[in-house]
Amino acid sequence: MLCGYPPFNGPNDNVIFERIISGQFSFAGPEWAIVSSGAKDLLMKMLTLDIKKRPSAAEVLEDPWLKQRAHNQLPDRPLARNSLNNFANFFVRPN
Predict the structure, then answer these.
(1) 20-39 confidence digits (pLDDT tens)
(2) Superfamily of domain covering 13-89
């Protein structure tokens, strides 16, 4: 929801699924450029493959970026038109 598409990309579904399973993600692209470093940091923590190192839901709720957003302490950033279009066009393809 931060930029309209997930941080996993690839030329086809098989490559994308392999990247998800192996934890290969990227915040590349113009839409990711406007996402704050705090948001990206939280996403990286949440996408940690090792379950012992991945934060629990309670720990995520204590993340500084999320707490600041929840209390309206961070200014809203305008969404790029591309982000909205990406989100509108995102769908899960049937097998």
Answers:
(1) 999 999 998 888 888 889 99
(2) Transferase(Phosphotransferase) domain 1 (1.10.510.10)
8 A C-beta contact, residue 5 and residue 84: no
- Classified as helix, coil or strand, 51 is coil
d(CA 28, CA 31): 8
* 83 Cα distance to chain centroid: 12
**pLDDT tens track for 38-88:** 999 999 999 999 999 999 999 999 999 888 877 775 555 555 555 556 555
Q: How far apart are CA 75 and CA 54, in angstroms?
A: 28
Strands (DSSP E) contained in 1-95 are none
Every domain of the chain and the residues it spans: 13-89
What global pTM score does this model have? 0.70
